[in-house]
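Hi V.,

You were right to ask for the full record rather than a summary. Here it is.
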Amino acid sequence: VQLVESGGGLVQAGGSLRLSCVASGSIFSINAMGWYRQAPGKQRELVAAISSGGSTNYADSVKGRFTISRDNAKNTVYLQMNSLKPEDTAVYYCNSYGYTGDYEVWHSWGQGTQVTVSS
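Predicted structure:
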């Protein structure tokens, strides 16, 4: 199963971006979907996640500014990022897992999309 992100870019502080991640391949079901980020010299960290039932959780640093959502019909997860700060600058990765048509577990990462917030 492949995950492909889009929507990254350069934005000024206070601006907004919307990331998208589409899953494709032998997908029978998708469980949780999430967004991680990794800034230079730092460990990869969870930004937000959403369960198959729609429950969400967020890193404290993005609560109230970022919103994660998913469209199950399109196998897509979104991350709406508002009030962006320079410290949000990082490569953002999509992550998800589920079952294939052969009922095998799959767990995939996207290739990453760069988000740069200028001050």
